[in-house]
Amino acid sequence: MFKRLAIGLMALTVVVSHASIASATPPLASEIHSIDEFSVVNLQNGATLEISYKSMGCFQDSVGDLKLTSDTVEYKGETRPLTVAQAAGLDRYFQKLASRQGSPAGCTTVTTIGLGLERGNDLIAHRFLVDDFCSGLFDGPDELLSPDHLRYDLFDKAKNLQMTPLPEK
Fold first, then answer.
1. pLDDT value at position 149?
2. Rounded to whole angstroms, how far apart are CA atoms 69 and 50?
3. 68 close to 41: Cβ distance less than 8 angstroms
4. What tens digit of pLDDT does each residue of 84-106 get?
5. How many domains in the chain?
């Protein structure tokens, strides 16, 4: 599944980086799945949400693939528990981001996100989102959580803290 999302994500990256949003051909309404179909909080019956993202900007470049169940997150073969608060934060992020697709933002950091909803080995729905809002989505009390921030919190934060040298006395 990650391979399918990654190929689509690469194609979306090319479209975003080589064509203006205004001249891009929007997908047909029948091709767009409601963002509510990708709710992490409501994952059930063995469904998984696969998230593939690529973020590029002046000061950072990150790529990641996450596989979520109703209560776990898998990244690079490691699995961590997923809390309801984290799942709800992802849902709020995707909902707010989906509501602003097509709005000019102009940030130099652009994150393309592929979402794939699977049940068993069947891809049920997929959707691509673009975040070029320079953290503007995070203004306000919404407690949003992006996939990259979730990955950092669950898999990299503790490792980075262990590598941080202690201040000299």
1. 87
2. 9
3. no
4. 999 999 999 999 889 888 777 77
5. 1
What radius of gyration, in Å, describes the C-alpha atoms of the chain? Answer: 16
CB-CB neighbours of 24 under 10 Å: 13
Order of strands, edge to edge, in the sheet holding 110-119? Answer: 78-81, 72-75, 61-68, 47-56, 110-119, 122-131
Residue type at 121 in one-letter notation: N
How many C-beta atoms surround the C-beta of residue 52 within 10 A? Answer: 26
User: Is residue 83 included in any domain, yes or no?
Assistant: yes
Residue 60 belongs to a domain: yes
The verdict on residue 79 lying in a domain is yes
53 bridge partner residues: 64, 113
User: Helix, strand, coil % (nearest 5) of the chain?
Assistant: 35, 25, 35
Nearest alpha carbon to residue 148 among 89, 77, 83: 89
Q: Which domain holds residue 101?
A: 2-14+39-162
State the pTM of this model: 0.74
Top mean pLDDT of 65-74, 103-112, 135-144 is at 65-74
Q: Are 50 and 39 in contact (CB under 8 A)?
A: no
Residue 167 belongs to some domain of the structure: no
